[in-house]
């Protein structure tokens, strides 16, 4: 399964320039998949399971990267993202059990996407572009 996530990440990486853009594109792709299956009346079970699985894989990869010694993100940001990763894991299990709904996962992803946009805009301003 992780190979699929890395494959998708690699395909997006070839089409975009920077790391933030790659991360944003991957979040966008997976969030759109989650949005397409949030309505129980119109979703297929396989698409629903695939969207949940891909989202969980993304967050597992993020958590793994955050725990690497060479990760240069500030410690506070690492802790926050690790907390979100655990929240996504637990919420995904509850969604599979029918106790939670997909919009909670979508909201987390959109919040991270907004942060990536803000960070990218800040970087552009820093570079004077």
Secondary structure tally, helices: 5
Q: How many strands, which pairing sense, and closed or not: the largest β-sheet?
A: none
Global geometry? globular
CATH topology: Four Helix Bundle (Hemerythrin (Met), subunit A)
CATH classification class: Mainly Alpha
Secondary structure class reads mainly alpha
Query: Between the first and last Cα atoms, what is the distance in angstroms?
Result: 39 Å
Share of helical residues = over 70%
Please, how many domains? Answer: 1
Question: What radius of gyration results from the CA coordinates?
Answer: 15 Å
- In terms of per-residue confidence, which ranges show pLDDT below 50 for 5 or more consecutive residues? none
Provide mean pLDDT, rounded.
84
Give the number of DSSP strands. 0
Concise synopsis of the structure shown:
The protein is an all-alpha fold and 129 residues long. 79% of the residues lie in helices and 0% in strands. Helix 2 packs antiparallel against helix 3.
């Amino acid at each position: 399964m992780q190979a699929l996530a890395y494959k998708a990440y690699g395909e997006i990486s070839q089409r975009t320039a920077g790391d933030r853009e790659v991360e944003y594109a991957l979040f966008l792709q997976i969030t759109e998949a989650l949005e397409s299956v949030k309505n129980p009346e119109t979703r297929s079970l396989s698409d629903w399971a695939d969207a949940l699985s891909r989202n969980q894989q993304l967050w597992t990869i993020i958590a793994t990267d955050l725990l690497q010694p060479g990760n240069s993100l500030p410690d506070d940001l690492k802790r926050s993202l690790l907390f979100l990763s655990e929240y996504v894991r637990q919420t995904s299990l509850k969604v599979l059990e029918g106790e939670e709904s997909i919009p909670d996962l979508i909201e987390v992803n959109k919040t991270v996407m907004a942060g990536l946009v803000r960070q990218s805009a800040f970087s552009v301003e820093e570079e004077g572009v």
